[in-house]
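Async update (no meeting this week)

Hi team, since we skipped the sync, here's where things stand on the single-chain job. The sequence we agreed to prioritize is pasted below, unchanged from the tracker. I ran it this morning and attached the output directly underneath so nobody has to dig for it. Comments welcome in thread, and please keep replies under the output.
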Amino acid sequence: MLFGYNDGKFDWTEAAVETLTRLWAEGYSASMIAARMGGGLSRSAIIGKAHRLRLPRRISKPNVDTPRVRKFRKPREIKEPRPARFVPEPLPAPVEDAPAPIGQRKTLLELRAHHCRWPIGEPGTSEFHFCGADAHAGFSYCLGHAKRAYQPPQARSRVGVKPLPLNMAQHKRFVA
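Output:
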């Protein structure tokens, strides 16, 4: 060991810095310099000190002994597009709201738990109101508006697969 520690810290004396500079200039690697200098110095300690001393950076040289062989890939075949797995059914035309009887219409402040909360009209206008009919048990809407609000998922017609028949009138929640 050429150099020592002072209070648990490596002592970078002028001799240590001179040795590092000389070995660095001769082309030794940081780990080789650390092994030569001893004293438990690490490769990172050598690199850090070289950086602080502003020693010139190393240019890494590629290994020219073993030339790199490039692998050539076959060009990908262009495949025909597959047919769609399902064809969406056209959506039904929107059903127009039947006007609620005038005595049945409710404003937001007039609504109670048993009233249908289906909004009718454009919010912010004087014509805006809620349906106000008696709500179907367990729902926020009357039976007619509940059928519109709670529709089953649209059956997807898949190639070669028949969709299950879904009928809202037979659903246990909508049978009165």
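Quick observations from my side:
Residues 14-25 form the longest helix (12 residues).
The two ends are 96 Å apart (CA to CA).
Reply here if anything looks off.
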